[in-house]
Amino acid sequence: MNKNEIPVKALTTTALLMAMNIIMSTSILSVPVPGGHMYLNDVIIVTAAILLEPFYAFLVGGVGAFLGDMLFYPAPMFVSLAVHGLQAVVISLFVHRWMKERPLHASIIGAVIGWIITFTGYSLGRAFVYSTPAYAIAKLPFQILQTAVGSAIALFLCWGSPSLVKLYRREFGRS
Questions:
Q1: Which residues contact 116 (CB under 8 A, 6 or more apart)?
Q2: pLDDT (tens digit, 9 = 90+) per residue, 60-111?
Q3: What is the pTM for the complete model shown?
Q4: Cα–Cα distances in Å, from 41 out to 6, 30, 123, 146?
Q5: In the chain, N or C: fewer CB atoms in 10 Å?
Q6: CA–CA distance, 150 with 175 (Å, rounded to integer)
Q7: How, if at all, do strands 31-33 and 36-38 pair?
Q8: Which residues of 42-57 are buried (b: 16+ CB within 10 A; e: fewer)?
Q9: What is residue 38's three-state secondary structure?
């Protein structure tokens, strides 16, 4: 394979997971909470970050969340691009670069750091977008819960039985 060729399997997986992220960004698939909705797209973002290399993880997490917001609720779309993009890249770097010899531990550490990035980033982003820290503070418990639940489900999907990571690597190799 030429060094400049885009791996078709990685691109296809990225597109599928990005579409799933966009779908999970809809209010139809969310849980209503005071002041808005709790979305489950963190499941897709964390799963993609564990399976894919950082660039592809960024596309799924950042660009997917951006497009979902742009289509359904555009006010925080740039916050989603930055926060979910950074979340996905950090998790992927842990799994595929920094701790690749211990991928389960890397996934857990990356998910915890991604969780901190997400609720901190969204709190600061909401305070900026809506010009009121009070709104950001009111949403903080739900943002913490959303990210924690999404990360826990993704970790279970990736490392439970059957392990999505093992199935993915067997079928597609390393992305």
A1: none
A2: 999 999 999 899 888 889 999 999 999 999 999 999 999 989 999 999 999 9
A3: 0.90
A4: 26, 9, 17, 9
A5: N
A6: 22
A7: antiparallel
A8: bbbbbbbbbbbbbebb
A9: strand
